[in-house]
Amino acid sequence: MNEQDFLAGYDPRDYPAVAVTVDVVALTIREGALHLLLIRRGAPPYAGHWALPGGFVQPDEDLAAGARRELAEETGLGGERLRRVHLEQLGSYGATDRDPRMRVVSVAHLAFAPDLPDPVADTDADDAIWLPVTALTSRQLAFDHGRIIDDGLERARSKLEYTPLATRFLAPEFTVTELREVYETVWGHPLHAGNFHRKVLSVPGFVESTGASTERGGARGGPRAKLYRAGDARLLHPALLRPAREETVR
Amino acid sequence: MNEQDFLAGYDPRDYPAVAVTVDVVALTIREGALHLLLIRRGAPPYAGHWALPGGFVQPDEDLAAGARRELAEETGLGGERLRRVHLEQLGSYGATDRDPRMRVVSVAHLAFAPDLPDPVADTDADDAIWLPVTALTSRQLAFDHGRIIDDGLERARSKLEYTPLATRFLAPEFTVTELREVYETVWGHPLHAGNFHRKVLSVPGFVESTGASTERGGARGGPRAKLYRAGDARLLHPALLRPAREETVR
DNA sequence: TAAGTTGTTCTCAGATTGAGTTGTTCTCAA
DNA sequence: TTGAGAACAACTCAATCTGAGAACAACTTA
Question: Is the CB of residue A48 less than 8 Å away from at least one CB of chain B?
Fold first, then answer.
């Protein structure tokens, strides 16, 4: 059956039985390490494994709304705090055998959040927790969530290059050093502080000065840093390219 | 209901009724213009409008397989020719009201094809046709397909920057000038021939020489051009950046 | 007060880019 | 057969961007 037939009118019971869920790869930075929001599964299949927060798309909500709702439910976040979280669609996963019980197509989303309080085991009985991404092996993950997380991480790394979304990991006001640490954490590379500083200030619309400075210098000394907020650019021109992986060598 | 509940076991009739389709934004270049594969709708809703080729995901196929099947059905393509077409997932569209009759989530895909013969009105009665993308207004398009096409075009333009996928619009062997014309057509900008030549040959793995040259010079004169085939790079390092839109100049 | 740390700015060599030029090989038409 | 125009490929050169390091002042803790 093709779309033409489908659209020409049909019995609603006529189409193949597929369930649609949304899953969320929610990232944040805690103590200098990239963390991921996960839920411990209690029941089979994959009991005891970690899974992404997610669930059915409701009849009255679109995909993005479903993802935002799932995120709100698991983090206990709402209002302004939730609105500051960046959320975008990552991709859909629909392998026929990805759920042992029935055909499920999951629309995965990717979220960038500033450091948030620990999720409270709230309305639901599942315990959600922020886990460092380095602490994960794909054997500990339910379904194809290991693959989804890998895709999300790669997307996140790439998005930092050509969008100003790194600021979404930070509070509304931040220093250039804090911004650099976001890049270093997500990319897993140290960056040259001076060059990074020059670049960030030279890309139009990336950050704008608040005029203020931090109250104190760094924990181990140094001058007070100037404060910035996110600018109005949606795209970085020119981009901040990550160091090429050395594939040319050997 | 969240995923936890869902996965804990449930009645298959329990989940919200959603249909999943795949749609394909198939692009090719004909006579120096970017063309798009579209199908003329015969029946309401949107009778007489253009729609993307697409249809239900079948129980035994994953999303990419469904998209490739739809593409094959509408182009009459198969075997090696079909395998050379680049196909990737574009994104999912699930607004609650995007189909007036029921909830449909469509997983859109993006395809890059070399110039193909005109589709034959084949197994199905719908007439598929390659249309220049410039000849479209979104009023002539069914559902949210105008939006999907816009997203596909933007993705295509951006993919040419950092991947070697421009070669997928060409025959297995091509000249640097043909490759440049792909970029010019998709980006809608003339490019500096000399600089483009230098850049393409300097990016590792983008193209490799076949050693051969074209049989004849250009239609209006000029020497025979050297022939190249696609190299083994999956990503271009450094990228071929498109000229910045002049937003600074306003 | 001394020693160490850090934010910010500067310098400078090397690479990359944009724009134009040159030389040569080819087609077409007179 | 030849002249005119076209276009591939290689080149030059100035402007810009990048990577790496250094300088220096403003802060911290001991």
Answer: no
